Amino acid sequence: xxxxxxxxxxxxxxxxxxxxxxxxxxxxxxxxxxxxxxxxxxxxxxxxxxxxxxxxxxxxxxxxxxxxxxxxxxxxxxxxxxxxxxxxxxxxxxxxxxxxxxxxxxxxxxxxxxxxxxxxxxxxxxxxxxxxxxxxxxxxxxxxxxxxxxxxxxxxxxxxxxxxxxxxxxxxxxxxxxxxxxxxxxxxxxxxxxxxxxxxxxxxxxxxxxxxxxxxxxxxxxxxxxxxxxxxxxxxxxxxxxxxxxxxxxxxxxxxxxxxxxxxxxxxxxxxxxxxxxxxxxxxxxxxxxxxxxxxxxxxxxxxxxxxxxxxxxxxxxxxxxxxxxxxxxxxxxxxxxxxxxxxxxxxxxxxxxxxxxxxxxxxxxxxxxxxxxxxxxxxxxxxxxxxxxxxxxxxxxxxxxxxxxxxxxxxxxxxxxxxxxxxxxxxxxxxxxxxxxxxxxxxxxxxxxxxxxxxxxxxxxxxxxxxxxxxxxxxxxxxxxxxxxxxxxxxxxxxxxxxxxxxxxxxxxxxxxxxxxxxxxxxxxxxxxxxxxxxxxxxxxxxxxxxxxxxxxxxxxxxxxxxxxxxxxxxxxxxxxxxxxxxxxxxxxxxxxxxxxxxxxxxxxxxxxxxxxxxxxxxxxxxxxxxxxxxxxxxxxxxxxxxxxxxxxxxxxxxxxxxxxxxxxxxxxxxxxxxxxxxxxxxxxxxxxxxxxxxxxxxxxxxxxxxxxxxxxxxxxxxxxxxxxxxxxxxxxxxxxxxxxxxxxxxxxxxxxxxxxxxxxxxxxxxxxxxxxxxxxxxxxxxxxxxxxxxxxxxxxxxxxxxxxxxxxxxx
Length: 813
Description:
Structural class: mainly beta
Shape: globular
Number of strands: 47
Radius of gyration: 30 Å
Helix content: under 10%
Number of helices: 6
């Protein structure tokens, strides 16, 4: 009994002492534009757990456990405000604060609340870009974590969306359509993608069912914006894999954005099976300048110069694969080298005229020139062995049987020059409850292509393949192509309210090009319904999507052009639900969408790493159906995390792909394969991007990315027909990053030297492929002495550590 009384006494004493700490009570009002009170403003005491929200009248009350502290006022669409308080004794004080509007954020809020309700687009959280651990460092890394997107290559910026291939994705920067290089064969040759993450102020992505305002492709749209900055800024990002510099200059009538980037991922490439001297050097410069002649008229210029050179002098390779019972090893010694060069230069001039507040007219003119060069002459002498199974022995394995010995030779001298010149007018007008827009565009594409390459395999003295009639023969290609294509497109679109809770968007696109001479009409519809609870949005979309032939799709694997190819066509239907709710101590958003796509005209293809080999003379019909699920929110305050799951099935029937085969009685019969899996038929995709705080302070954070993509079908080469007999194993990858923000707003003590010169100083330590998983991206196909064909896996990158530092300089006047 005495112990119990003593325990109660100690607890009461402790409680008394805690409450006896000096308290400062702060009351006041937060105002916005035109001195109007602002509700729902978050006020926090930095370094403490105290936080509150302003009421409908903008009033608030908050307490501090110390007499010296800093208050932070934050509201989306306004610049945060920091108020320092230094009181000698505890008591009551009053602080009235006026927040300044952030123009860029206000535009983003408008899009989210109005435009996104009538759009199958999701807004990308730009703040996550610098924290996302990524080997490539490209903007597209965050796209790969979104619903409906699948990938199996961390080195590449390419991605597949709902069963489509890489060529079916649209990319826009400030309303300018961006094209990608054609000749790139694998991810290690890719350099910097067009979008500069440091310049992006807002972006949205649609995995399907997108509006008529966007172009004529089958799968997705990525729409990124470089906007007017809110202040002058100079920032530097430097790490083991490259560096970037960004300059933002803001004046009364104009602004300038300048971004310089350099990338060298030699250390990452050296973790692959192919050992050698890697020299990947990539860089680019981008500039956006806008001058406002008046409130109604402005002129902007977007310029880009992107260049890269990938050089490799291979030395050797050793790959061990197979099963526990049968282990195989390929050893290769190389001679020769590979040199690839890519350069894109061009720009766009945009004139924006707004004669009335409810009317905007844009005239966009762009020109881009891309030059691609491939030079490789590599000889590989290989030994193909079966290893003796001995689980008691560690290290060097004993050779049980030699499966093959031979040489293969890869040679290429390929050149491709392409030009894209376009002019476009787009308008948007608000009147009543309508948002009406239309546009017209003319584009000319020129291609000058020179292909000269061959591949030989000499296995035990026999040149393979020895049958020149095989379906995927690439033994020798020597062609020259010159082609020009003119495209003319237009669209009309209207978004309006049917009722207080229901909105409807109707649109139609028209397309005509000089290659097919087809007039393509593509109607599209989107219906959005918001129940009275106001925390749900239900969407239904339907439309026709038609993709005219491109130079890449009409060029067959042997370089011959099929100029009789017609546009691909898909009928898309989808239904989705967005639901916001409170759970796990935070506000969460759940999004889901089910879809079905039927294509009556498709051009079949096969994948070789990231290169698409079109079977340009073939025609197929296809089906794709699936569902995407996503949930996200601030599971940890101010840090957004999300989880997504996608399930999908995609197949196609190549028309006229029947073949003859002997039955058990030796009689030849005609076989019609029917529907087979498409190369993008990845049934399950799962991704996680999770952020948390470490230790006691808020300045230490962890950023975790997990990707899983189930296996992909693949057919063996040298086959007489389209097949899906084999598969690439599931893609599994975990990347993790740790960061320290030395000048975090919540830090009570900041380094004085850093505070003097910088507004932000963040250090990152990243571990790529944390679990060191061997992911397969493609296969090298070889035959042994018994004419048995083997698929030797080409593995992606292994575990690698990276460090980077991001500095934002102070403006000194």
